[in-house]
Structures are given as C-alpha cells and as structure tokens.
Amino acid sequence: MPEGKLCNKQTVDTKELLSALLNDKSGKQYYEEMNHLDVDSKALWGLIQKSCKSRLRTWLEICAHCGMCADSCFYYLANNRDPRQVPSYKIQSTLGELIRRKGNVDNAFMQMCMDTAYSKCSCCTRCGLYCPFGIDMGIMFGYLRGLLFSQGFTPWEMKIGTGMHRIYRAQMDVTTEDWVETCEWMVEEYEDDWPKLTIPIDEKNADIMYTVNAREPKHYPDDLAEAAVLFHIAGEKWTVPSEGWEETSLAMFAGDWAACKMQVEHVYAAMDRLKPKRMVVTECGHAYRATVIEGPYWAGLKSGQPPVESIHYVEWVAEALRTGKLKIDPAKKIKEPVTYQDSCNYIRNAGLGDIAREIMSYIAEDFREMSPCREHNFCCGGGGGLNGIGRYRQQRNIGLQVKRDQILATGAKMVIAPCHNCWDAIRDMEEIYHIGIKWSFLKPLLLNMVIVPDDLKPKEE
Amino acid sequence: MYEFVRGPLALIAFLIFFVGMIYRTIKYIRGLDWQADRVAYTAHFSYGLKGALRSILYWLIPYGTHSWRYYKVFTLIFFTFHVGLLITPIFLLGHNILLKESWGFSLPTLPEAVADTLTVLVIIAGIFMILRRIALPEVRIITTAYDYLILAIALAPFVTGFLAYHQAPTYNFWLIAHILAGEIMLVAIPFTKLSHFILFFLTRAQLGMDYGIKRGGMKGKGLAW
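^ inputs. structure came back:
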C-alpha cells in the first residue's frame, strides 16, 4: 500500500517528522505524494459505520433537495451563484456519495472531497439556519474532514498544525520556556509606562486564568501586553498558566479528533492545577469554540461544560465596562462609523451576539450593523482554517467578496474583529481589494479609550 | 376489488404506516449520541427542550424564520402544499364517513367546497414545485428522479381523489385508484424521504437542542431562527 514519506495516514508525533513537513516548501512533495496515496476502503467504511450515527445519516437521507440552503452560502453568492456551490450539492456529492459507495472510492474522489471540504466550505454552519429540516452541512463537512484526515487527505498546513498540537500542545512551535519568556519580556517592555504591571504565572486560585492563541506570543506579543495592561487597570486578580495556555485547535479544522482531545485536556489540566474561578479566552473565535464549546465533548465531560466557567474576551470586556472596572473616556469614544464582524464561532455557535452590541454601545458613537448580522452573519471568508491553506488561496480570495460588499454597504471606516481568523481575513481583503478599511481587535482600541486611575500612571520625574 | 382495497389492504397500509413511523422515531432517538453529536442532551434537558420547541415552532409558522422570509414566494407555495396535504385527507367528509363505518368514530369535517379548493391548491402547488425543480439551476442540480417520484406519490391521491369526487367517467376506476394511491403514500412514508412527516420534528428538535444547550441557548435569549 503506497504511503508517502510526508503524506500518509500516520499522525505527526515527532519533531523530525514535523520538521520534514515544514522543510517541504509549500507542500510540493506532500501534494505530489498525495496523488499516489492509496485509500484503505475497509478502514474508511469501518470508521463510517462506527461514527456516522442517526443525526448525520438522517440529515443525508431526508434532504428534500429543495435548494433553500443555496443563498445561505457565501461561496455560492461569491461564485456567481454557481449551482455546484449549493451546500446540499456539495455534501451529497462528497460525504453522501462516500456512504452510498460504502467507502469504495479512489484517490481522485478523496482529493475532490478534500478540495470541497476545505475550499468550498468554511464550516460556518450558516446553511443549518436556512434548512427547514435543520440540516447543518457545516457540521457534516467537519465530520468529512475527520474521515479524510484518517486516510491522509489533509491540506499540508493542516497536517503540520495537527503535528504542532500533538508535539507542542500549541498550533505553533512555542514551548513552555518561549511562552514564559515572552510574558516576562512583555512586562519589561511595558513596565516603564505601567508601573507594577505583572503577568502572574501559575498563581493558584486567581479570579481569572487567561489563555491565548499561540500566534500572540509568537508573532503579536503586544496583544498579550495589552491584555495584561487592561487586566491591570481593571484591578483583576489574574494569572496565566505556564502549561495549558493555548486555546486554539487546528486539529479541529483538520478533523484530528485525538489531537483535539489532547489539546483541550492540556488546558483543563491547567484549570485543575490552578483552580481559577473563571477562564477568559483571548479575542479568537475558533479557539473559544474549540476549548469551551466543543472541547468538553472531546474530553468526555458529560456536562458539556469545561471544568471551570469559561468566557470569551468580549464577555469579560462587556462585564468590565458594565460594572465600571474599565471606564471609557467619553471624549475618546470612536467617532467615525464603525461596524462589527460577528465571528461564526462565538456568535452563531455560542450565542454572544448581544454581548458584542453591548460593548459597541459603550465605545462607539456611530455603530453600524452589517446586513445580515448576529447569528445570521456571513463568515469572514477565512474561517475553518482556510486563511492558512496556500492550496486554496484563490478560492478564499473570491469568497472574501461577500464580506467586502457587506462592509462597504455599512459605510463604516473601521471593522472591529475580535477574532484572529476574521481579523486576518479582513486584513487580506484590504490587501487584495483596497477598500480603504481599517480593522482592529478590541484591546488596542480599549487602551486608547479607558480612563487610567492616577495611581496606575507612571510618576513624573 | 373495491372491498379488498377498502378493507384488508387499507388496514395493512395503516398498520405499516403506524408501526413504521414508531420504528423510525425510536431508531432516530436511540441513534443520538451526546458525545458524537457533541450535545449534552440529558445533562441540560430543560434547556434542550426549550431549544427544541422554539426550533419546531418558529419553523411551523409561515414566514416565522429568516429563511421563510427570504424565500417569499416559495414559502407561500410550500405552506399551501403541506397544509393542504395534511388537512384535506384528515378532515374530508368522505374519509370520516368511512372512519365511522370502520372504527366507529369520526373527526370534524371540512365543508365540501373547502376540501375541493384545498385539493386544487395542493395540485397547483405540486405542479409549481415540479416546475421549480426544472427552472432553477440551484434546485435542478440536486434534483433526482427519486424527488419526482416522491412528489408523484404525494400528488397521486389528490389527482385521483379530485377526479373521483367530480364523478369523472369510469368513476369506479378513479375511486379504486384513489384508495390505492393513498395506501401507497401511507406505506411509502416510513420507507422514503416522506418520513420527514415525523423526522422533520425530530431533526428540528435535535438542532434546536444543539442551539439550546451548546450553541448559546444557555447564555442568551435563544437563537433568532
């Protein structure tokens, strides 16, 4: 059975294998090997029989082929209403066909499934809101990605991502030492302006255990410093864990369920160790969904809840503004028209739409809703891991047009995007389409707006 | 012939229908898996129930959801079709006379003219649904012969019933055809996509529980379907 050196059915559990994958520029060899990868139909059918239960089977069976999901899909709209982009067609021609053929499919079929599952669906789950039967094709594509992963048909970057989680318990190669050093470095950088600023590490029984996206320590350490400053101003008793600080899950995008479990259990172990009252997750959508919404199920927690109450950063911000822990200087509120990018992962899939509006009511003078918005908002165009996959860059860029037009229609000059994926997608959109829009997380905006108590200001020399 | 289709065959059809639907319901619910579906169905049952009921209710109301409001014309056709399809046979005078003869009870009945109008509306809506499948590329691409067969099974009792009621020549033929068509539909429901007769409520409830328990229902005021 031909298995590639890089592209195969094995998981990436060693640094050697991971670096071999990383050294394969753009996955050239990886995708070449994929062309020769065999499909183990018996194992595939076995997995389907074990894991495809009545919810998915019924969805596939009773789909009335009414086409009401068509206009719900931003890919369909962005691709000139190409019928091949109708969600029902996409799932029936991939997962549906795979089951009809009892797993007896060839390499080309599996690659077609992979291309569809990643470049024609961001798993935003909007279609599920438009189907009379509540058939959620985003969920089904997530499931299909898992089947594809088990057979080695996974985009190169996703394979690397799962390896990172398996080896580093983070989506990037950030070790415990790197993380702790970054925390210390940020304190050094900011303590001149913010005397007594700390990033407490491994403090037990804190009110808040703060956890992040590995991109922050790796590429945007100032985000971590900004979080620290805001907690400092708000007077929070908080901490970060030295281990179990990473919330994201590229493994979720890739359908590597075993790695998903490893990753969230690492965070839950930090909760058990430090016993915080609550956990706050940084401004990231899929991270919150992975660790707070889906994670408990991967970890087998029957309550469906993480071991301690866990909230998204926007929930903390809304609460801090509501209770006056953070006070906004009215003169510094955002004057220009501004809109809010509802992240699929914590708005549609976690119900935080009202929280976002509450924040906007405190900080923006001219807030403009996109249409549609809240739970019905369109994906930014970069969700489901798509931002990070080179193979599908073209398809991603076409998909961005729906969000571009939605933003333009508001007349806003700035998009607030408290989600790494949305933030990236809007940044890339600006780079490609030049619509003259600014984009931002909440943290830097809040830092410019909050009233700093005198005792926290540096002493004049 | 009439006695046979009206008697034993009808009994068998109803039996298959009821037993089949109970079987489908049990099978669906037993196949739900809190961990695979990632919904803590039993741990937060009250939130789940609320989510399930909201999910069903909003979708039963014409123009009650974003989706129904988005597809304005189709929604009208769709509700006409389904309301007529359910109401007409259950409250038809002729059917209730038979019911009384056979099982000794009957339901309230519709005036003949109303039932006749509903029948015509169902047929018109059905024809519209067929044309829609042909005309719209986004529906055509997912349409299969099976979808037309399902529509035919659902429409046949109405077409034949209409002809029989209006005493078309060869009345006896149309009457027997009508009874057979109805029996075919009853038997087909548990075995085909027509099972959405009951599975609509179950899948709606399932996604409603998903949203009611996991996707925000325990935090906000519930999803605006």
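The CA atoms of residues 52 and 207 of chain B lie 7 Å apart. Chain B has one domain: 49-214.
thumbs up if we can close this ticket
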